[in-house]
Design a protein that fits this description.
The complex is a heterodimer.
Chain A lengths: L4 E13 L8 H9 L6 E14 L4 E5 L6 H8 L7 E6 L3 E4 L12 H11 L4 H15 L14 H13 L5 E5 L7 H16 L3 E5 L3 H7 L2 E6 L2 E7 H12 L5 E2 L8 E9 L8 E3 L4 E9 L7 E7 L5 E8 L7 E9 L7 E11 L3 E15 L28
Parallel strand pairs in A: 3-7, 3-8, 5-6, 6-7, 12-18
Antiparallel strand pairs in A: 1-2, 1-4, 8-9, 10-11, 11-13, 13-16, 14-15, 14-17, 17-18
Helix pairs in contact in A: 3-4, 3-5, 4-5, 5-6
Chain B lengths: L6 E4 L8 H6 L1 H16 L7 H21 L9 H28 L1 H6 L6 H27 L8 H29 L3 H14 L13 H7 L3 H14 L5 H25 L3 H4 L1
Classes of the chains: A alpha/beta, B mainly alpha.
Chain lengths: 401, 275
């Protein structure tokens, strides 16, 4: 099949002018012309050599840090600003949603805003009329349809804005970080709607900082770094790479010999394949490798490991008596941490070798910082918006009368 | 969705005029105009009546000061009829020009977020002025009846023609200033001044024949609105305007249109970066 979008070698150069007022003034322009002096300008490439293809029906997530060039890319794709180099071939109609409620006017009523905004987003008047009831239904503001928008609460305005956007039906939909706002219940509704859009065979390009939402919606992702495509591939892989680039943690390695009889030599976190890693998706298996050194046999000694949340508070503890594994010298232990248990967030490890309530041989606090990212959980919609706890719990729900 | 849409986005080489695209976006002309008219008269007690009241009050003031006090000649027309006919077509130009020039800056938020042919914005604000013109035109007919002013049948051709000339002049200068305003906000301050100067340089409240020096007359007929005002009044006065004068004025209107649209199209790609 022919790809629906071909992005070939796109580059975008901006000239950063060192101006006092923020925009050009005629005086400055004239003065510099009189002095035969060129305006001092610096070239800045917001995008360089960006090329990729999108197949029809594909949903692609675009991730990267702030200022990496994601939004510039979307602006070029939506024809708002032209590229400096390269070209894009599109084989479908593009609608872009870089903001919800563009063109909303406070003096216009809800009804009038639906029409104006819908038309701006590229909907035909007939299509808006046909879907008007559904849009109103989705927004839940039918009571205030003929009230000027300025009397709406900000939440209501947002719902109305999303409702119009949700009924867009282009072949290619470009969405920028718009789901980060709005109440969570409504976000969920929108996400569901967007999933339907992508299932119905439309192509979606999606920019977001909410990685959970990206992995829920998109199977392929592009990592943008300093204006260039750093990586492209399976969404979960890309998210992991992205997280890894953020967070450089190391495991724990004891630097000097400890004087006690029993102590930790090293503690590392690794994935299933044994590679040391400190960024995981919530449904990935995590393995904690402990190396304990013990010269003499002690009875009643326990090795306890706890996971601490970002506040340093223990989420849970797991422990075993050391005698179960005892051998003189180095004892290598492997702890498998449960998957789909820790909720997305940053955590660290607490570890201790002790005789409960009596004697502590070794104690390590807040080592091996690691992060858990949402790999598309049912709570992805809350990402960055609402803290729902440290752990996922599988609860049984039923109705009874 | 069987039709295949294939197009490319490139750095340059966009067609200067993409009629097909404008046609595809035709509904936006309507929606922008509709929105601006709605907003203009929202939360006003008198609403659309303002479109009539404004020129009516202007007419009264000019009649008192220029007609009665200064006794300015009015080509054999009752002075109120003379000045209102001029104001009617002049207001189309002045309010169209003012709002078109500021339109791109006022809609900067939309420009930065959504693509559509940018020309829709200044054109729509001129259409708003056209709406006001048509409202005031109803009053004009009323005034003609009150003063029992005979009108030549040529009005059927010349009034729409004058309107068209007015729109061309407004669109040319308006789109040029709109584009310049995006880049240099200085034009925000230039526009009201420019409109004021052009008002006195156009025979709205006095006839061209009042000017004694031919050099002044030559200067005035270069105003693109000269032709519109003279042609609009011709069915009332029956005084044939100088052919070359009208020609010069028409020519300057057409040149303005070309320059304005060309400059607008050449810079529109970068509006989102500057606005």
């Amino acid at each position: 099949m022919k790809s629906i979008l071909e992005i070939q070698n796109i580059g975008k150069k901006y000239r950063i002018q060192h101006l006092a007022g923020g925009y050009l003034s005629l005086r400055e322009r004239m003065v510099s012309a009189l002095k035969f002096q060129r305006n001092e300008a610096e070239d800045f490439w917001a995008l360089k050599n960006v090329s990729f293809e999108v197949q029809p029906g594909e949903s692609i997530g675009i991730i990267g840090r702030n200022g990496a060039g994601k939004s510039t890319l979307l602006k070029i794709l939506s024809k708002i600003t032209p590229p400096t180099t390269g070209r894009i071939i599109s084989r479908g109609r593009i609608a872009s949603l870089l903001e919800v409620g563009t063109g909303f006017h406070p003096e216009l009523t809800g009804r009038e805003n639906i029409f104006f905004n819908g038309s701006l987003l590229g909907m035909k008047r007939r299509a808006i009329e046909a879907k008007f009831d559904e849009i109103v239904d989705f927004s839940g503001v039918e009571k205030f349809l003929d009230t000027p928008l300025k009397h709406y609460s900000s939440g209501m305005q947002l719902r109305l804005a999303f409702a119009v956007a949700a009924f867009l039906e282009p072949e290619i939909l470009i969405i920028d970080e718009v789901l980060a706002v709005g109440d969570t219940e409504f976000q969920k509704k929108c996400l569901g709607k967007m999933e339907n859009v992508s299932k119905s065979g439309r192509t979606i390009l999606f920019v977001s900082h909410q990685l959970g939402v990206v992995s829920q919606l998109c199977r392929r992702a592009i990592l943008v770094k300093e204006g260039e495509i750093a990586d492209m591939g399976d969404t979960l892989d890309i998210i992991n790479k992205y997280n890894a680039s953020f967070h450089q943690s190391t495991g724990f390695v004891r630097g000097h010999q400890k004087r006690t009889d029993i102590f930790f030599q090293s503690i590392q976190l690794a994935d299933r394949s044994g590679t040391s890693r400190y960024n995981f998706l919530h449904h990935e298996e995590m393995i904690l490798d402990l190396s304990v050194f013990s010269e003499k046999y002690h009875s009643m000694v326990f090795v306890s490991v706890a996971i601490q949340n970002s506040l340093g508070r223990k989420v849970f503890t797991t422990e075993r008596p050391l005698e179960q594994f005892y051998r003189p010298g180095e004892i290598k232990l492997r702890v498998e941490l449960p998957m789909q248990f820790l909720a997305p967030g940053s955590y660290s490890v607490y570890a201790a070798i002790h005789v409960p309530r009596t004697n502590t041989f070794d104690e390590l606090d807040r080592i091996c910082d690691f992060t858990i990212s949402d790999g598309g959980s049912e709570f992805a919609k809350y990402e960055g918006a609402w803290f729902y706890g440290d752990v996922f719990a599988d609860c049984k729900w039923e109705s009874h009368y | 969705m069987t039709e295949s849409v294939e197009y490319s986005i490139e750095s340059s080489g966009r067609k200067l005029f993409d009629w097909k695209e404008l046609w595809r976006y035709r509904e936006l002309f309507y929606f922008f105009t509709w929105r601006d008219i709605k907003i203009k008269y929202k939360q006003t007690f008198l609403g659309f009546l303002w479109a009539i009241l404004q020129p009516l009050m202007m007419m009264t003031i000019f009649t008192l000061f220029f007609g009665k006090a200064l006794n300015i000649p009015s080509q054999n027309l009752p002075y109120p009829v003379y000045v209102f006919s001029g104001l009617l077509i002049w207001n189309l130009f002045s309010s169209g020009l003012t709002s078109a020039s500021n339109s791109m800056v006022n809609n900067a938020l939309i420009i930065k977020k959504i693509y559509f042919p940018r020309l829709i914005i200044p054109v729509s604000s001129i259409l708003v002025a056209l709406f006001d013109f048509l409202m005031a035109f109803i009053l004009f007919i009323g005034i003609l009846i009150i003063y029992q002013q005979p009108v030549s049948w040529l009005a059927v051709i010349l009034w729409p023609l004058a309107m068209l000339i007015g729109i061309i002049a407004t669109l040319g200068l308006g789109s040029w200033l709109a584009a310049l305003n995006v880049k240099y906000r200085d034009f925000r301050y230039v526009i009201p001044f420019l409109v004021q100067v052009l008002f006195f340089l156009t025979p709205v409240i006095y006839p061209l024949s009042m000017l004694k020096y031919p050099i002044l007359q030559y200067m005035l007929v270069c105003s693109p609105m000269y032709a519109a005002v003279e042609l609009f009044r011709y069915p009332l006065t029956g005084i044939t305007p100088d052919f070359y004068f009208v020609g010069a004025s028409l020519l300057s209107g057409l040149i303005l249109l070309l320059v304005g649209i060309f400059y607008f199209k050449r810079t529109e790609d970068f509006f989102a970066d500057f606005a």
